[in-house]
Amino acid sequence: MTILKDKTDIDALDIETQKKTAELKAIDLKNTSNLPRPNQQEAEEAVRTLIRWAGDDPAREGLLETPKRVVKAYKEFFKGYTENAEEILSRTFNDVGGYDDMVMLRGIEMHSHCEHHMVPFIGKVHIAYMPNEKVVGLSKLARIVDTFARRLQTQETMTAQIASAIDAGLNTKGSAVMIEAVHQCMSMRGVQKSDVATITTRFTGIFKDDRDYRDRFMRLAGNE
Ligand SMILES: [Zn+2]
What we know:
- With 224 residues, the protein is of the alpha+beta class.
- Helices cover 41% and strands 22% of the residues.
- The protein is built from nine helices and eight strands.
- A hairpin with a 5-residue loop joins strand 3 and strand 4.
- Helix 2 crosses helix 3 and helix 5 runs antiparallel to helix 6.
- It binds zinc ion.
- Zinc ion binds next to loops.
């Protein structure tokens, strides 16, 4: 489900297309490439090209170190390509002490970059899952968000990937993921609407089949 929480009509948004792409890619948890990576120098040269494209001079004093900084920042922005969700979720605990309800993490901070414009979209992720016999450390769930957020993404794909990774890694009875985010490609360019939050959800298993669980999740997520 995709809802646009806004005051205006935004027809420029191609949400339906994005949603379909997301569904196609939902099972692919890697979205990495086997292409050879450019070396540091080549990457810095590419940044200089973009600076010239923007209309400035890469040899100007204030910009001299910029390519180096940008390339370094990219390592951090996109470190998700070097992380493996399966591995992160592999250390689980079997002793849940009779606990038999859903586990929920609300308001996990999320910073990502949209794959269409390579500009940030920033927001919050709410995750719940129904344990089967295994649970995982709560910090691991937050790391899963980073693993997928620190890549070139669509919000729809990321929502599906987080749910799929948790289901696969923990063999859950179902999971629920909700992301609310503001896309800078919408606030800084194109339709220039800065107050619009895009909300995406993904429900699997018990959350998909049982309305009560879904409602509880939505209520808890909305109370943030
Ligand atoms: Zn975009």
